[in-house]
Amino acid sequence: MKFTIISLIFSLFVAGIICAQPENGNINYIIKHKWTKKMAAIDYISQSKREHYDYVWGNLPEYEEKAVLMYDSNSYRFEDAEDQSEYVGESWRSSEYFIYRNFEQNKTYDVIRMFNKLYVIEDSIKYPQWRVLNDLKEIAGHICMNAQYTDTLKNNNIVAWFALDWPLNFGPEHYGGLPGVILEININNGAKVIRADTIIAVEADRIIEKPEHKKRVKNITGAEYNQLIKDYIYECRKEERPYFWGLRY
Amino acid sequence: MNKFKKPLAILFFVLSSYMVFSQTPSNINVKGRIIDSLGETVPAATVMLLTSTDSTLINYTTSDSDGRFVFRSTKNRGYLLKISHVGYMPIQKQIPIISKDDYDFGNIIVEPIAEILMEVVIKSAQAPLFIHGDTVEYDARLFKVPPGSSVEDLLKRLPGIEVDESGGITTMGKNIGRVYVDGKTFFGDDPKSVTKNLDAEAISKVQVYNDQSEQERLTGIKDGSDNKAMNLELKEEYKKGYFGKASAAAGTEERWAGRGSFNRFNETSQLSFLAYGNNLNSTGVNWEDYQEFKGSSAYSDYDNGDFGFNARRSGHYSTSFGSNYSGKGFSENYGGGANYNYFKDKIKFNLSYMFSRSDLFYDQFTKRQTFLTDTSFFRYDTTKNDRLNNSHSISSRFEIEFDSSNTLIFRVNSRLSGSALENIQEQLFRSDAPSPSDINLNSFQESSDVDAYSVNILSLYNHKFKKKGRSFSVSGAADISNNNSARLTDNINEYFLALTPTEQLTYLYDNTSTVKSYKSSLMYVEPLSKRFSLMGFYNISSNETESGKIVKDGLLNNTLVNSMTNFYIHNVLYNRLGSSFTYAWEGLNINLGGAYQIIDMKGRYALLQESDAYSNLVPKSYNNFVPYFSSDWQLPNNMRLSLNYSYEIDEPTMSQLQPITDNSNPLYKVEGNLALTPEIYHSISGGVHYWNQSSFSSLSVHAGTNIKETSIVYNQNTVFNEGVGYVTTSKPENVEGGQNSYAYFWGSLPIVKTFLTFNISGNISFSNSPVFINGIENITNSDYYRGRLGLNLTLGSKLSFNLGGSASQNTVDYSIQTTQNQKIISYSTSGSFKWQIFKKTFIEGNLDWDNYESNKLDYSEDLLITNLSVRQVLGEKNRFEMRLAGFDLLNQKQYLYQVASENYTQYTIAPTLARYFMISVAYNLKGFETKMEKNRYY
Description:
The complex is a heterodimer.
Chain A: H1 2-19, E1 25-33, H2 35-40, H3 47-57, E2 63-71, E3 75-80, E4 97-102, E5 107-114, E6 117-123, E7 131-139, E8 142-151, E9 156-163, E10 182-187, E11 192-201, E12 218-220, H4 222-239
Chain B: H1 2-23, E1 27-36, E2 46-51, E3 57-62, E4 68-75, E5 79-85, E6 88-95, E7 102-110, H2 115-123, E8 129-132, E9 135-139, H3 151-157, E10 161-163, E11 169-171, E12 174-181, E13 184-185, H4 191-197, E14 203-210, H5 211-219, E15 228-234, E16 240-251, E17 256-266, E18 269-278, H6 287-294, E19 330-344, E20 347-371, E21 376-403, E22 406-431, E23 438-464, E24 471-495, E25 503-527, E26 532-553, E27 559-560, E28 566-585, E29 588-607, E30 615-616, E31 620-635, E32 639-650, H7 654-657, E33 662-665, E34 668-670, E35 679-692, E36 697-721, E37 725-736, E38 739-752, E39 756-773, E40 776-795, E41 799-814, E42 822-838, E43 841-854, E44 859-874, E45 880-887, E46 894-901, E47 904-911, E48 916-924
Parallel strand pairs in B: 1-7, 12-15, 34-37
Antiparallel strand pairs in B: 1-4, 2-3, 2-5, 5-6, 8-9, 9-14, 10-11, 11-12, 12-13, 14-15, 16-17, 16-48, 17-18, 18-19, 19-20, 20-21, 20-47, 21-22, 22-23, 23-24, 24-25, 25-26, 26-27, 26-28, 28-29, 29-30, 29-31, 31-32, 32-35, 33-34, 35-36, 36-37, 36-38, 38-39, 39-40, 40-41, 41-42, 42-43, 43-44, 44-45, ...
């Protein structure tokens, strides 16, 4: 009897968590970059160079950025948080990187500056083939399960942690397609980690709009976007130049 | 028998697959109902359908209010069904390929996650434990135990684990029968021997899992036991690494070289050793080797504690190996050192010792033409110089980040150095037109010994306030240096134009100087809004130089030379209070500021004896307001623009002010000038940098100008003294005007990406500098242009070429003797190749042609330098390398330098290391690369 009561309370508690997700809100993510791990994952640069790089630079603090995912009941937009300079006179232009998904229309409308051009990528929503694993951990108050896939374009190992109590299928950047909101993305064992920091509810009638941008853009499809990346990485490979100096990791 | 097995197997396979195909539906429905161990329904559980081969997610749903779920019309291919829910352990079920349309699991029972674990998981922001399937993993670092605790003490703190009095370990009521360390058994099978003996400090993770499942994984056979096992994962710092290299080389012309390095590292420290020696004119190690030696502290030498803009970068001290090699003569060099870095949590520590010794010998010939107001004369210098330098330095740096808002840096550097010099020089003065004739020959011999030490201490504290952008910094530093030298000079001046007795001067110098400098800086930054902030700073520094020079006449029984002996003490006090206003937003940074500075100089000096009464120099005080502007702007298309302005005030040095004449060289005397005022100039500079990632092209342009209000120049007065020759007296004086401007650019453009790249660079500079020659103002206008074009050609991964050519022209015009205006032109071309001819064999070569010409001095020289080498990587692990190299195959190399300035033009030639052949053997613990490497991009 005692157990039933405990489990009842427990179920209520769990149900409470599930109901607590705002229907319209912002997820603030913190993006951490570990450059030596990025370098270590570049297979076309000699082992000795990568080890040298790690030996000299491995002790640098991680570089941190902030980003925000704004969602409503049928769409979301992910973008870098506005200017985040911490020191006087060291402001950097935030990257033009906007990911927009409309689930109702099954459409992407991403605005990305890449290779000195502003691209708008319009396509249907596609997801990678996730492999779901067993590990559990807590992120921003949610129990998350992990899943992973290999990004064959960039040869990156992507590990996602999705919330078990938040059955929506989106996440930071373009990552999505899991049975819960992705609260952490870990690329190449810590080379880049996007982790949810806070989740904030906003007024329920907010509608997430497509990202605004200048008129002069180049419109491409998802396949064309992938081809651009593929060509660029091919050239970087030939030049033995780390691709991430010129392309978002 | 075997012959039949294969066809039979194929037949069986075909048959069975036919049977499967014929009997199984292509699509099926999967359903079930989820309940917990108490029979309660579990709604809102995530139910996932994964492929059974690699767990790829195919479809998912959630259980309804009755705990039911269904996947309709999904391919009949065999699946894993995975159920997860916040409150329950994830569960997996197999779905085989079935022969009917529905697969109904009925009730699926899920187990609640032990509450105690749940609590830890939910409450902790740092996730001290993970659950991997049936494994519970604890992050040991997050469970604090006192230093010296055993693993047993650590285990007692882990939720869900119990340790009884005898040391037996249980979890969730089950006994832990085995303890592994990094997956291996440790001290036999008794778990207590591990948990009691191993230090908790060494553990990073504790994993608890079903022993049975581990064995199943190995053998595939269930043994029925119900034990748990524990694995202790060691921390990274208990994992070590090392690398090292050694090489030895011997060549013709008695050339040799050797070097070795060894590095040992783990997660929290780096220890390295380095030693080198050679007679190949390489006085230090290259930057890459230096980086490897200093490891993670290679970039932490740059703190100087000077805050604010345009601060005096005094006392800056950077550690490096060896001295810069000028390119002339022959040198024998040795060096070495040890470096230790420690970094853990918020502490960084570096300690390093370095030693270097270099013995440089050179012969040199210089021809110089000096223009006076209406005449000119030539000087031919022949020099033999031998200098031995050695130094020992110890540097240390300690940085502690108390928390995210407080950082302290403490640094101590010290250096002990010495040098010994022997210099023999003959200067032949010869008159110009109408009839060139020898005037006089000044023979000069010098030997000196110098001992010096310096100590530099710096501490720097930074505090970041809670309000973003608000910060406070303070620094304090002390620099003390001492220099003792003993010097003997011998001067003989033979005058040829008349029968006058040869003049000889022999002096013994005993110099001591001590510089003590103390400084401190404060800075405070206050953010006014998101985009605006205000910075205020204060710098104070006090500098005292104490110097004594005792000169004795070697030809007069070492009696004191009164006119040359002097003692002085100089004090400079520098105060600067300033502020700047900053706008920083979205890549646009603008700083606008100003400072008020007061430079107080005072000094006293005594001639003859130290004990004599000191005379005070008239104190000087320079008070100025200095404005400042800097800006940079990052445009969206990878373009960066910058523009800077500063107003610079450089006070004269006390030795320039002091009314003492330095007449150690009777033909070239330097006077002091008490009336000097500071040099004041405006400095403007700006640049554009553009980079295009997709085409790999880039272009940078940087330009600037310095406009002088008043500058300090050494005016010259040269007179012809009958019986002596040309005697020059030089005196620092203020002159109005003067300007120099410069621009340089470099760019790179791939013509065919990854195959052919074109690069271009160049620089231009214009200067006009006034100087008084024999009382008449001479304005020297110098225009310099240089351009270079290059091509890189990469033919596959095994062959690459570089070609380049450059030309430069320097036009120098004088206002007093326009007939002496001149042009100096030089051309050079270069080519090099790298070829991986076999898998482990590489050929490299280069060819440089340089041409120097000066019509004024009747001088023209062509140099053709060629180098060629072959290297072979050897050994199974590529740890050895043999190299055969020929340097300067045509034996033409020499040092050449030409310059035209103020009122002279000159060129210098010095022999240096020319043709030699060398064979070398190298060993690399990590193995040599057997792939031709491209350039570094970082």
